[in-house]
Structures are given as structure tokens and as C-alpha cells.
Design goal:
Largest sheet: 7 strands, mixed
Strand content: 15-25%
Distance between the termini: 37 Å
Radius of gyration: 21 Å
Length: about 425
């Protein structure tokens, strides 16, 4: 009988990547741990790409899903949907956006796709500003605004995209500046760019770039951008697919580190809110959300089952102060990871906030990416019972650490010890 890996290769696209030389099948999970088909247990520091936000098999969420599925699984947005309205009310209030409206989708890609539709329709322009090293999804329109070559399979796009400096603090022409000077230079670059364009619809930005390797600008940069954008009537879309729900510890939303000029016009979310269920969405001011002049619905967005999961998960998150836990345990974890990387020539930088931590690896003594080193650490960590992720863009290779927000101090210590062993083996 063929192995599951052989069967996968026979039916799945070649570009559908798998981790590890000997890929694993995850069969079940509990808390911060998962098990593979051979019965091996792993401490999960990647959470299905930042999606299992609270815990695996969280009883409150599985109970809500089971009870809702026992009543009705699907109806579409053509009918009133109590769980959808209740979750929308809570997210609108949390968003910080005045007079907010919420539209649910099934993924972060679809959420960003919807945000682009709203912004271009509202502004009557197809010009978009995006950040270098960014990632916004897998659809035709979101690939077209992604500033990361490794995740951009085509240069064709319905949008005209211009890329702005600022998403990566420690690389590029402004890396040597102080934070204040870095922000001033990026704002000057934005001002200069707008002097060469036609009317721009929006700037879309991740407060912390996810796939790009957990890079971020100095706090306040997007507030400084916002002041420029406002003078031109340009919308600000904050892509919170990876940074939302308290993962950064210091804030509930990533944009709040840049909130001096107010909230974004549009906010997109996904991943963690469903704790593994397929939930995404868009929050926008009513005048923006309501600007479409044609019919639109969602067949699967706002499904009663996924909304029940989101409600239960959000309640658990808030009642157990998981944002505070991300700040406290994440602060400990990043200290331990920095100590683990100290003296390892391949470790260029350990960065992040909360439970969103990146370890950038390079060829020792250079700024060149070290993908083989990243693969070696990934394999070594798995062999010793730890699952982590990887990312990076523009000649970078970064290990990505993003455990469920209920991570304990003991689990943080355990994971850091495994990481230290893997890094020192380089």
C-alpha cells in the first residue's frame, strides 16, 4: 500500500508545500500539544499557521460547534443568523472603528480580497500602496499586492500596486537610522511616491509581517503614514489576519501600536478567531462597507457553526486574559530564545512581541539567507518534539514561533530548551 505521502504527491499540486523531509500526519491535539499518526507527541509552537489561537480541542469551542451542528449547520447570509449577528456586534465594538460594519468570509485571503474591492469601489481607483516584504493571501488580487517574491506566482493583477518602505526595520536603505529617523525617511518616501501617482485607493499593511518573517516597523510609523494618507483621502487597511486578537501581547490589534492618528478605515481578520474553524472577515466604516452598488452575499461566510466557534473562542480569550498571557509568557519566551541564539553565528536577529517571535538566520558573517540552516533547525526541533514554522522574504530565512495564547511558562521553557539544542547544533 502506498504511503499517505505518496498518495498526496499523486493528487496534490507540486506547489502545495509540506514541512519536513519525512512529512507528518497530525491526527489529534489537546492544549498546546498534537500527536502524529505514529503516536509521537509534539509541543506545537506554530498552531496551524497561527490559527489554533487558544488551544487544541478547547472544550468550550468543541461544545459550541457540536451543539450548533446539532441544530443547523448552514443557511447562508440570505437568512437572519443569530450567531453571526452576535459575533459581528462584539467584533465591531472591539475594532475601534466608529460606526463599524462587519462582513464575514471564510479566510484571510478572502477578507483582504473584500477589503480591496471595497477600497477600490469607494475611491474609484485601482491603485494600491502595499509594503515591501508583505503577504496578503493566495487569490489573484491578493497575490498582486504581495511584496514577497516567494509567494507571488504571477505579475498579472487587476490592481496597480506601488510598494512603500517601512515594513522591515533592520534591512534596506534606512536600517542604520534611529527609529525616529527611520520613520521620517519612510514618510518622506511615501510623500515622494504620492507625487508620482494618480489617485490612490488605499494602503494595506500588516502591523507585523507574518510570512515575511515577523518583521515590523517602529511603533507609530503607520500613524505617521495615516496623517499623510488622510490629506490625500487615501484609506488605510490594517491586515490583522496574524496580529489580531491579542497575539502581540501589548495590544488587542496590531494597529494599536500605531494608533496615535486613530483607527484604520478598514480592518481584516481571520485565523485565530475560529481556533481552527474557517473564519475571516472585514470591519469598515459604514460609508465604506455600504459603497457597493451591486448585490453581494456569502454562501459560507458567517456560517452558523463557524460563528458559534468564534463566539465561544472570543469569550474564552477574554475571560482568561490570553492577551495578558501572551504578553507575560511571550516576554519570557523571547528572552529565552535570545539567550539560546546568543553566540550562534547563524542567528542574525531574534525579534517579535507577545507570542509572535522570529529568529532570522543568515550565513555567518553575512546578510545572506541561510535556508539550509532554517530547514536543519526545523527538522531538529521536530525530532525533539517541537513544531515551529518558517518564513522570510528578499533573501531572508526566518524561523517563526507562534504558539497558542494559552501557553504555560513550563511549556515556554521546554520549547526554548529544544530550540536552543537545535540552534547550537548548527
Amino acid at each position: 500500500m502506498s504511503s499517505l505521502h505518496d498518495r498526496h504527491r499523486a493528487v496534490a499540486p507540486d506547489w502545495l508545500a509540506l514541512y519536513y523531509q519525512d512529512p507528518i500526519e497530525i491526527t489529534h491535539g489537546e492544549g498546546r500539544h498534537v500527536w502524529d499518526a505514529e503516536g509521537r507527541r509534539y509541543l506545537d509552537f506554530f498552531g496551524g499557521i497561527l490559527t489554533t489561537m487558544t488551544a487544541h480541542a478547547l472544550p468550550e469551542v468543541t461544545k459550541a460547534v457540536s451543539e450548533q451542528a446539532g441544530r443547523i449547520i448552514h443557511s447562508s447570509t440570505l437568512y437572519l443568523n443569530r450567531p453571526m449577528v452576535e459575533l459581528a456586534e462584539r467584533i465591531a465594538a472591539l475594532s475601534g472603528i466608529p460606526d463599524a460594519r462587519v462582513f464575514f468570509t471564510t479566510s484571510g485571503t478572502e477578507a483582504n480580497d473584500t477589503a480591496l474591492l471595497l477600497a477600490t469601489a469607494y475611491r474609484r481607483s485601482n491603485q494600491i500602496l502595499a509594503m515591501r516584504n508583505s503577504y496578503h493571501g493566495r487569490s489573484f488580487s491578493t497575490v498582486g499586492i504581495t511584496g514577497n517574491r516567494a509567494w507571488s506566482p504571477t505579475g498579472l493583477s487587476p490592481l496597480q500596486t506601488l510598494y512603500v518602505h517601512g515594513g522591515v526595520r533592520t534591512r534596506g536603505p534606512y536600517a542604520q537610522y534611529t527609529d525616529e529617523r527611520f520613520t521620517e525617511a519612510c514618510v518622506a518616501d511615501l510623500e515622494d511616491l504620492l507625487g508620482h501617482t494618480r489617485s490612490v485607493a488605499a494602503l494595506i499593511a500588516e502591523p507585523v509581517q507574518g510570512v515575511g518573517g515577523f518583521t515590523s516597523p517602529p511603533d507609530g510609523l503607520y500613524a505617521a503614514f495615516r496623517r499623510v494618507l488622510d490629506r490625500h483621502g487615501i484609506l488605510w487597511i490594517s491586515d490583522e489576519v496574524q496580529t489580531g486578537w491579542g497575539r502581540t501581547g501589548d495590544h488587542f490589534w496590531g494597529w494599536q501600536a500605531h494608533g496615535q492618528a486613530g483607527p484604520p478605515d478598514v480592518l481584516t481578520f481571520a485565523k485565530g478567531i475560529g481556533n481552527g474553524m474557517s473564519v475571516g472577515g472585514v470591519v469598515a466604516r459604514a460609508e465604506i462597507m455600504n459603497c457597493l452598488d451591486a448585490n453581494s452575499i456569502s454562501t459560507f461566510g458567517g456560517s452558523p457553526v463557524t460563528m458559534a466557534a468564534g463566539l465561544a473562542n472570543l469569550s474564552y480569550l477574554q475571560e482568561h486574559d490570553l492577551q495578558g498571557n501572551a504578553r507575560r509568557v511571550g516576554g519570557l519566551l523571547i528572552e529565552r530564545v535570545r539567550a539560546a541564539g546568543a553566540g550562534v553565528p547563524a542567528v542574525r536577529e531574534v525579534r517579535g512581541r507577545g507570542l509572535m517571535i522570529g529568529i532570522e538566520l543568515t550565513e555567518p558573517g553575512t546578510d545572506r539567507a541561510a535556508p539550509d540552516a532554517a530547514a536543519a533547525v526545523l527538522e531538529s526541533a521536530r525530532e525533539n518534539g517541537l513544531l515551529i514554522g518558517k518564513g522570510g522574504g528578499h533573501n531572508t530565512s526566518t524561523l517563526r514561533i507562534a504558539p497558542p495564547l494559552s501557553l504555560t511558562v513550563a511549556e515556554a521553557e521546554e520549547g526554548a530548551a529544544i530550540l536552543e539544542q537545535a540552534l547550537r547544533a548548527l
